[in-house]
Design a protein that fits this description.
The chain has 241 residues and is of the alpha/beta class. It contains 6 helices and 6 strands, in the order E-H-E-H-E-E-H-E-H-E-H-H. Strands 1, 2, 3, 4, 5 and 6 form a 6-stranded mixed sheet that branches. The model has no long low-confidence stretch (mean pLDDT 93).
Length: 241
């Protein structure tokens, strides 16, 4: 019997963090996690170190500062969670649709990402540069594309690189109905959702690998530290040639 050829791509040096923004605390069943499992399994099968964070299980304070205990809150899990975010080459924000929009947990997590958006890396760029982002959305009502647009815009605005086809989602028939993991929903078997989830996963891996191999986004023309110092590559600037 012929040997099985090795997989054409391996990503053993990459890590991915899936943030589940369900409103349900563990160990309640999360439909969003059902879709996460498919993408995470594909990544893991190709060498990626994956982890899943259920945001609602953590005491994430409301606010737009890196540590809200410095602004009147008694506790804030964000500084610790931020370390997990920064340790991941790939960030996938995942959550349900409520009233056609992202969950409040999704919005809070994005707000806290934004709270750290002024921090810089060791090359003077915004800290999220060199990482890729995507999203997964589930629900039993309309809103997948709206939710994805909001998440992906937010991530790229903060410095994440967004690959092509960086989102996937599932909704049932219009109107209240079964959720993704409910018996007979058809969610886990849905070819459209499975195709998009696979494309999203592979594109996240490809772009993350390219960025890692390149050492991130080139540090020219995008360094906040240089701009603040008056070093501006596209303007006459005799003092900082």
């Amino acid at each position: 019997m012929a040997a099985v050829p090795p997989a054409p791509y391996r990503y053993d040096n990459l890590s991915a963090l899936f943030v589940n923004c369900t409103l349900k605390r563990s160990p309640e069943v999360s439909n969003t996690e059902g879709l996460i499992d498919k993408s995470a399994a594909l990544m893991a099968a190709n060498g990626v170190t994956t982890s899943v964070l259920r945001a609602v299980d953590h005491d994430i304070a409301t606010g737009v500062w890196p540590d809200m205990t410095e602004h009147g809150w008694e506790s804030d899990a964000w500084p610790r969670l931020y370390e997990q975010v920064m340790a991941a080459d790939i960030l996938v924000l995942c959550g349900p649709i409520w009233l056609g929009d992202n969950s409040s947990v999704t919005k809070r997590f994005i707000e806290r990402l934004y709270a750290c958006s002024s921090l810089l890396n060791d090359r003077g760029q915004y800290a999220y540069y060199g990482r890729v982002g995507g999203c997964l959305v589930t629900g039993n009502e309309d809103g997948v594309k709206h939710c994805a647009m909001n998440i992906l815009y937010s991530l790229q605005h903060l410095g994440y690189t967004i690959p092509p086809q960086a989102d996937a989602g599932w909704i049932g028939e219009a109107g209240p109905g079964p959720s993704y993991l409910d018996p007979g929903s058809g969610g886990p078997e849905n070819d459209f959702t499975n195709r998009n989830a696979a494309f999203m996963t592979w594109n996240l891996l490809h772009v993350a690998a390219m960025l890692k191999q390149a050492g991130g986004i080139p540090a020219h023309g995008n360094q906040r530290s240089q701009w603040d110092a008056g070093c501006r590559s596209d303007q006459p600037n005799p003092e900082h040639r």
